[in-house]
Q: What sequence folds into this?
């Protein structure tokens, strides 16, 4: 795979800590590395997401992303890339990542202490490839043109989401440090006509992707602002401000890392752009509507005849409106949660509170899927489920005490709420060995014959992290 004309790429990168890590006094465990050669003809980038349950996840993510990005840059500069097929590239990537694994092992700690996912790419005149292992995602897209003048970013018909792979449970995935890691490493060629390639951790994916498609009120509005800013530091600052906005906290509490690689040689060259911080305060310019000619006065009309003026007419009208508008309004309210991100770029009124979503969205741990537990202490675990669902313990650590032992009991709920919070107490004894434990739950919706599995990681430590 080779290109007839070199491309010019513009890079922007931001990584912000999640609210769940702030609450637990943990660092940002994401890491990204983006490299570009002097002529801007080769881009090599890697994004790694450290697992929250691994004690040295940040070290694993940092070494994996930095080493693999540098190896990709060297490969992109070499004409040998043009003659390599997917199998040859897979073998090449396995050899480089195995070297990283051996370097981690040399530290003396087991590999599972460095758990991290990986998504990476190389964009070169000799070839373009995407590498994925785990649930960190990528997006590739070709722009459309509005009237042959303005570029439209991320049109639905020419945008592909590469979501990565997950494990058996909803919040499990594969890691570079797993024993069978190479079996889950996937490679995909990137088409030569792509104008945008994005790499991101799963926390950023929650903001950018909705129902398997690019959320129209984030990237399509943000990217036109980024391409107008010439300084890399200003672009990174703007991107970080969007990802860290408090209005995103209701969507995800995870760390969020996003790398945008945008082709800028098909349009006007990047200008100096808006000055910061004004650009952060108003990231999208207001729409200016043309003035319309005045509407000519209408001829006076005679009022219509009063047909069926008694109360039965109004009752029939109310019933018809409920039957026609009710189902449509319920479907629209299902998307309210992610639509809050639109407030980052558009001035809109507050959205109404959405009705309960489906079981696959409602069932979750209230404090995230990771908790820290010190020896000789207890933590209260809360599970949010839809009303009427059953919560069962599928597997629990044998050296931890659970009360009640047969599963969570209902503690919170109201007549108006469509969800309830179930809770139980987990206690670690004074002699319980330190290390991670997994608690697996099954949530059943008996009415719809559906179920969902959740897994909670409990990290037992000698002293609770302050």
A:
């Amino acid at each position: 795979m080779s290109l007839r004309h070199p491309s010019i790429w513009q890079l922007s990168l931001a990584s912000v800590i999640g609210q769940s890590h702030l609450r637990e006094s943990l660092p940002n465990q994401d890491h990204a590395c983006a490299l570009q050669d002097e002529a801007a003809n080769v881009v090599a980038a890697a994004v790694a997401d450290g697992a929250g349950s691994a004690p040295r996840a940040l070290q694993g993510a940092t070494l994996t992303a930095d080493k693999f990005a540098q190896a990709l840059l060297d490969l992109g500069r070499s004409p040998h890339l043009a003659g390599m097929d997917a199998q040859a590239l897979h073998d090449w990537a396995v050899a480089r990542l195995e070297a990283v694994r051996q370097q981690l092992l040399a530290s003396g700690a087991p590999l599972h202490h460095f758990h991290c996912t990986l998504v990476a790419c190389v964009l070169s005149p000799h070839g373009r490839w995407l590498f994925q292992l785990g649930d960190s995602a990528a997006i590739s897209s070709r722009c459309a043109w509005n009237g042959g003048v303005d570029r439209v970013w991320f049109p639905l018909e020419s945008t592909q989401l590469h979501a990565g792979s997950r494990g058996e449970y909803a919040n499990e995935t594969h890691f570079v440090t797993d024993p069978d890691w190479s079996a889950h490493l996937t490679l995909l060629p990137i088409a030569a006509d792509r104008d945008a390639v994005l790499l991101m951790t799963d926390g950023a994916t929650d903001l950018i992707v909705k129902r398997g498609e690019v959320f129209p009120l984030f990237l399509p509005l943000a990217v036109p602002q980024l391409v107008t800013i010439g300084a890399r530091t200003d672009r990174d600052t703007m991107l970080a401000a969007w990802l860290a906005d408090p209005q995103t906290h209701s969507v995800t509490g995870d760390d969020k890392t996003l790398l945008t690689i945008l082709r800028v040689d098909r349009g006007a060259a990047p200008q100096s752009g808006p000055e910061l911080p004004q650009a952060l305060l108003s990231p999208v310019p207001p729409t200016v509507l043309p003035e319309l000619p005045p509407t000519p006065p209408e001829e006076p009309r005679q009022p219509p005849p009063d047909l069926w003026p008694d109360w039965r007419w109004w009752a029939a009208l109310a019933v018809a409106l409920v039957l026609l508008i009710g189902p449509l309004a319920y479907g629209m309210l299902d998307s309210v949660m992610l639509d809050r991100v639109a407030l980052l770029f558009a001035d809109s009124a507050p959205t109404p509170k959405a009705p309960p979503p489906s079981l696959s969205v409602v069932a979750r741990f209230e404090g995230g899927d990771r908790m820290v537990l010190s020896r000789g202490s207890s933590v209260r675990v809360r599970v949010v489920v839809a009303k009427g669902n059953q919560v069962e313990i599928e597997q629990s650590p044998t050296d931890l005490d659970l009360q009640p032992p047969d599963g969570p009991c209902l503690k919170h709920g109201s007549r108006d709420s469509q969800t309830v919070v179930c809770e139980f107490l987990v206690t670690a004894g004074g002699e319980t060995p330190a290390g991670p434990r997994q608690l697996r739950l099954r949530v059943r919706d008996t009415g719809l014959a559906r179920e969902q599995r959740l897994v909670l990681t409990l990290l037992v430590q000698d002293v609770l992290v302050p």
About this structure: Confidence is low (pLDDT under 50) at residues 1-6, 268-298, 343-361. The domain at 359-461 is CATH 2.60.40.10 (Immunoglobulin-like). The radius of gyration is 26 Å. DSSP finds ten helices and 23 strands in the chain.
